[in-house]
Amino acid sequence: MTSARLPIFPLNSVLFPGLVLPLNVFEQRYRAMMRELSALPEEMPRRFGVVAIRDGREVAPTAPGLPEQARPEPGPASGFGPDPLTSFYSVGCMAEAATIRERPDGTYEVLASGTTRFRLLSVDATGPYLTGEVEEIPEQQGDEAGALASGVVRAFRAYQKRLAGASERSLAGQADLPGEPSVLSYLVAAAAVLDTPAKQRLLQTPDTASRLAEELRLLRAETAVIGKLPSLPAVELTRRPTSPN
Asked: Model confidence over 187-199: pLDDT tens digits?
C-alpha cells in the first residue's frame, strides 16, 4: 500500500465513511488548516484525516486565570502530550470538505463527509497544525456479508423501535436502509448509541462481514438491556452534533 500525508483533525468521536461531519472551527491550529484547504485550486479535493482521541483533549487547554508565563503552551499538539501518535486511535477516516465558509470573526463553518478508512503511521507537529502519514485501508466484503446485512437490518429496526418507542420518527420508520452491506455497516455503526471505544472497534474491523457480525451482536445485546429498563429519553439516532471545534 502507498502512504500519503494529510492534515489531521482529532475529535472526541468516530467518523465513518459516508457520514456527514459538520465542524465549527475556532482554534488557531484548525483555522490555519481550513485556510490552507480553502486556498487549494477548485479542482483539488479538500481532504483531511479525522482520528478519534484515545487520551487527550479535543480543545486545547486554557487557563485564563493564570499569569501569562504559566499558561499552557499553544501549538498544533496542545492537549495531546509529547507524542501525539500515542494519544490517537490508529485507524481513522478521511474526510472531504464540501464547504468551508469563513465567518467575519475568522472562525470557520465546515461541512465534510467521510470517505475511506486509513491507518495512521506517524504524526508531525512541526507545522501550524498536525499532519500525519496515513495508509489507506481498502474495504473488503468478507464472507457472507449479504446474509449478515439482512440480519443487521432486522436487528437495527428492533433496536430503534425499542430505544425510541414505536411512535417516534426514526430512520427505520421513514426510509429504507441501504442494501449495500458496507454502506449499511457504516450507517448502523454511526447511528447506534455506543461509546467511542465501541464505535472505534467497528471502524477498525478487518472487513464488512466482521463489522456486520459485531453489530448484530451489539444490537441484540443493547436491545435486550433496553427492554429491561423502565424508560429512556427519546434519541435522534441519525443526527450528530456539530463538533465544538
From this structure: 999 999 999 999 9
